[in-house]
Amino acid sequence: MAYRRRRSSFGRIGFALLLAAIVLYTVFPFYWAVVSSLKSGSDLFRVDFLPPRPAWGNYVAIFRDQPFGRYVLNSVIVSVAVVALSLALSLSAAYALSRIRFRGRGVLLLAVLAISMFPNIAVLAGMFEMLRAFGLYNTLAGLAFSYMLFTMPFTIWVLTTFMRELPGELEDAAAIDGARPLQILGRVFLPLLTPALVTTGLLAFIVAWNEFLFALTFTLDRARTVPVAIAQITGASQHELPWGNIMAASVLVTVPLIVLVLVFQRRIVAGLTAGAVKG
User: Which of 93, 126, 153, 225 is in Cβ range 3.0-4.6 Å of 116 for a Cys bridge?
Assistant: First the structure.
């Protein structure tokens, strides 16, 4: 008995240490970015766990030296548009792939998933020519359209998996009452899919918010988003980068994502675990 208690105590201590190491590994980079954003000059090259003289001017400088507020607004518009369009289109596609039987359904679902396996650089040239042909180059609409290439396969796959787990009796009962497929989707399935929609929508938002390569290639000047704006922050000379300003911009860009995760954390957990247990 004493051996089992000792072994259980060691197990709990080991788990606590592992959890602490994981938290430190994930949180420390953001913490160090916050500390660095409050430093300037030679203080940036000193190891201080708390800034001795907080340099709040770094946050003022990123808005003074460039239209950073406009870049943030561009990112918000593009990310929200990507989430709304991806979820709307993926929801109808998931309903067809999960509830309607037709030939080639499995192959089509695998093809949708295979699209997400291509790296951004592999489709960059083709997407550039497509946007230029449609007159969408250097527009927020074109940027949102290009981001959907990578968000929709994931959202379709996840929503299809969740929708397959819903009882067929709900659909049958609604059909007997005279409901049409769109009414079944909107009034019966949509409330039950809220956790999945929140989870996939937040992940799509993060992808669109942080994307860099397409934003750098398909936009110019005032149509650019915050990742490109941060990359273009320069100092007085080519060899001097204002790391304080860069860290301040990085913190401002990261905070909205943290707030969204904290606000929707319960629905995210419910969405990630909804299909884990059957019966």
Answer: 153
Dihedral sign of CA atoms 14, 16, 21, 25 in order: positive
CATH code, domain carrying 220: 1.10.3720.10
| Residue 92 resides in a domain | yes
83: in domain = yes
Query: What total of structural domains would you count in the chain?
Result: 1
The mean of the pLDDT values for the chain is: 83
pLDDT at 212: 92
The full 3-state SS of 157-224, as one line of letters, equals: HHHHHHHHCCCHHHHHHHHHCCCCHHHHHHHHHHHHCHHHHHHHHHHHHHHHHHCCHHHHHHCCHHHC
In a domain, 146, yes or no: yes
Q: What angle do CA 242, 244, 250 make, to 5 degrees?
A: 105
